[in-house]
């Protein structure tokens, strides 16, 4: 069959240093490099999933300012969001919650699929946010949830981006 190509705009949010770029680069190249410049840009990758062409447009946002606000431009652009925190930094979990509130105020709750990502699982000896807390937040906000290590595996990043595509597809089917 000739299914239509699906374009999905995905915005990565979260505090500085949580691994947004690492996750993006993992997904795009399968690699983990270690250090990334502070370049804010939109990357694209086309994949075929179950016979359908999916175009991932990924906006890796950089929040250099203290205020973790989400701009109107970002809210309007995104079909779905990936909110990342570092399991070793409770402050980054707080930022995710602030950004969720911000997003929910800006858009109707059901209209924006979100996946929450607890990153740096490889550093779990230094964990300060439990998996349970992350899962509960995701459950109460109706978001997807994955605990991953961008440093250790490609699989986690793949799951995250593919889950968001599924959520976006479900949302569009409901319209
Ligand atoms: P961003 O500011 O959110 O885009 O964060 P980066 O992707 O630039 O990553 C910040 C730092 O955390 C870098 O030094 C990365 O190498 C490191 N990092 C990212 N993901 C992981 C991970 O899963 N495990 C570990 N140990 N380090 C990570």
From TrEMBL:
GO terms for molecular function: G protein activity; GTP binding. The keyword Ligase does not apply. It catalyses: GTP + H2O = GDP + phosphate + H(+). It comes from the Eukaryota. Keywords: GTP-binding, Hydrolase, Nucleotide-binding. Its EC number is 3.6.5.2. Belongs to the small GTPase superfamily. Ras family. This is small monomeric GTPase. The lineage of its organism: Eukaryota, Metazoa, Chordata, Craniata, Vertebrata. The gene is LOC114431342. The chain holds residues 14 to 188 of 208 of the full protein.
